[in-house]
Design a protein that fits this description.
Blueprint (H helix, E strand, L loop, with lengths): L1 E9 L2 E7 L4 E6 L5 H10 L17 E7 L3 H10 L8 E7 L5 E5 L2 E3 L1 H8 L3 E2 L6 H4 L2 H12 L2 H48 L5 H13 L1 H17 L4 H14 L7 H28 L4 H21 L4 H67 L6 E12 L2 E10 L7 E2 H4 L2 H15 L7 E5 L7 H14 L5 E4 L3 H4 L4 E10 L2 E8 L2 H13 L5 H12 L1
Parallel strand pairs: 3-13, 3-14, 8-12, 12-13
Antiparallel strand pairs: 1-2, 1-4, 4-5, 5-6, 6-7, 9-10, 10-11, 14-15
Helix pairs in contact: 5-12, 6-12, 7-11, 8-10, 9-10, 12-14, 14-15, 17-18
Length: 550
């Protein structure tokens, strides 16, 4: 519950602190005194967008702080999900600078507005899940019936299975698109693959062929040079090897006369042997170099074939062509496997759908079981709050499988016993919506743990006995929940456990809003003024006293 609200520098509020009771809190005051401003400030700690134009004093920041008492299990999952530290009390704070910058905090830890809003939906019902705008929405109408049906675990299990089913359907859709695309491309891809397979490329082949082409193209030049080198080494009139042999012998003859000559002679002998080996290798290479016109033609044709493939596929190396070949083969193989995967997935989806339909049928039965008692109770409450001719009817129609079953649920409304029921969003007025929401909320509150409930003039347009009955419903609702209600009705104010009075007064050159908790006698006087004007009669005071005593 919200036990303290602190407002600083907001609209026409300079500094305000309110301690709320745990049951029925009523806020009254003259029109324009600032009652709705309190809710505007409260909405900031519920995650609403901030407007820097609401600052009371433009030179300092605005601070709104709400202190809550909560059951830890109520918010534990949220704190664990967002890795926040839980404390014995929960403090929410919004700060708005004069420049318009807004910051939000949960227990002094900075958070974003979406996090703040998600948490406060667990704490406060203000313009959120159960407001009159939501009443017109089909999701809310379904949630009301589900709350009364009391099957959250079953519904959660169904919803998880449905999302699995939806994921499988998406996968099937993707596979079907892949198959369609593969079918469009398969003929061309098969042509490309056959072309590469027919070419029968080997890794590094183009590099090897280009080297062979160079050799064949320059074979005459190579052979002429090798012939000349071999001839000069071994076969001319005074071959190099013969001269080197003679020079080595000359050095050897001097070995006895100089100690360093033998080493030189040995090195020359090594050079002779190395050149002799070179001559033999040159002769071998020369014998192996032959110009082959037929082979040259074969190499040129093969290279032309590969160059054509390279240009077609935009690559430079044989390995890249081989990778393209493998990818095309894999794509075609995958396309052949798609039919098997699609068939398997279709069977799985059919089984999931059958199971979902069985579960959805049970959920539908549970919902339908709540329709008649819900209609009877709401219609009874409508008569109690001054709408004796109004009727609500719940229309449940079969719909395609969805996340919450296979039902389309709509609340229909007839305000005048005309038996002409229409969708609430089309036929109910604002005042009717407000009272209808109160009736529905009072029923739902008995089935689920609603958070703090806040009503902003929900009793607009009623008086007398109807207003009294609204007060009775509010009082009953407050037995298990904290209720905060802004009202102009004395009948409702008389039911309050805590009565707050909002008023304005001039302070310097500014109007400032204040709130004070009324004593018993002050309550009687305030309610008497609501009954009889600024100067209530003795009868009005006595009437007010009776309202407070009831």
């Amino acid at each position: 519950m919200l036990y303290r609200l602190i407002i600083q520098n907001y609209a026409i509020i300079d500094n305000l602190e309110i301690d709320f009771a745990g049951n029925l809190n009523v806020i009254t005051g003259e029109t324009g005194a600032g009652k709705s401003i309190l809710l505007g400030a409260l909405s900031l700690i519920l995650g609403e967008r901030a407007d820097p134009g609401v600052l009371f004093d433009k030179s300092r920041k605005c601070v709104i702080e709400g202190m809550f008492k909560v059951k830890k299990q109520q918010i534990q999952a949220f704190f664990e999900e967002h890795e926040l530290d839980m404390e014995d009390q929960l403090i929410l704070r919004r700060e708005i600078s004069a420049a318009g910058k807004s910051r939000a905090f949960i227990n002094d830890t900075p958070v974003n507005l979406s996090q703040l809003s998600a948490l406060t939906q667990l704490l406060v019902d203000l313009h959120q899940q159960f407001d009159t705008l939501e009443l017109e929405k089909s999701d809310f109408q379904r949630e009301v019936i589900d709350a009364l049906a009391g099957h959250p675990d079953q519904l959660s299990a169904y919803t998880r299975r449905f999302y699995d089913y939806a994921a499988q359907q998406k996968e099937l859709k993707d596979l079907l698109q892949q198959r369609d695309q593969a079918n469009k491309e398969s003929d061309y891809n098969k042509f490309l693959l056959d072309e590469l397979l027919e070419t029968d490329l080997k890794d590094g082949e183009i590099e090897s062929l280009e080297a062979e082409q160079q050799l064949l193209s320059h074979s005459e030049e190579i052979k002429g040079t090798l012939d000349r080198v071999y001839f000069q080494l071994k076969e001319e009139e005074q071959p190099v090897l013969q001269q080197l042999r003679q020079l080595q012998a000359s050095l050897q003859s001097l070995s006895a006369f100089h100690k360093e000559v033998p080493a030189l002679a040995e090195r020359m002998q090594s050079s002779y042997l190395e050149l002799q080996d070179i001559a033999a290798e040159v002769e071998r290479l020369n014998d192996g170099v032959q110009y082959d016109a037929e082979r040259m033609e074969e190499v040129n044709d093969r290279l032309a074939q590969i160059y054509k493939l390279q240009k077609k596929h935009g690559v430079q190396q044989t390995l890249e062509l081989l990778q393209i070949r493998d990818r095309l083969q894999a794509d075609l193989d995958s396309a052949l496997n798609l039919d098997d995967r699609i068939t398997t997935l279709e069977k799985k989806i059919a089984a999931l759908e059958a199971a979902l339909q069985q579960e959805a049928a049970k959920i539908t039965q549970q919902r339908q079981a709540q329709v008649k008692p819900f209609e009877e109770k709401v219609n009874g409450l409508l008569a109690q709050v001054g709408m004796p001719n109004a009727r609500i009817k719940v229309d449940i129609r079969q719909a395609p499988l969805q996340a919450y079953g296979q039902d389309a649920i709509e609340f229909l409304f007839d305000a005048n016993k005309s038996n002409q029921f229409g969708p609430i969003r089309k036929v109910a007025s604002g005042g009717e919506l407000s009272r209808l929401m109160l009736c529905i909320k009072s029923l739902v509150a008995r089935s689920v743990a609603l958070p703090t409930l806040i009503f902003d003039e929900i009793d607009t347009g009623i008086s007398g006995e109807a207003a009294k009955q609204v007060g009775i419903i509010m009082k009953e609702l407050a037995r298990g929940h904290q209720v905060i209600c802004i009202t102009h009705q004395p009948q409702l104010a008389g039911k309050a456990d805590a009565h707050y009075f909002v008023y304005k007064q001039m302070e310097g050159e500014k109007v400032n809003t204040h709130v004070r908790l009324l004593t018993q006698e002050e309550r009687i006087t305030a309610i008497a003024r609501m009954l009889g004007g600024e100067k209530p009669t003795a009868a009005a005071i006595e009437n007010a006293r009776e309202m407070v005593a009831q």
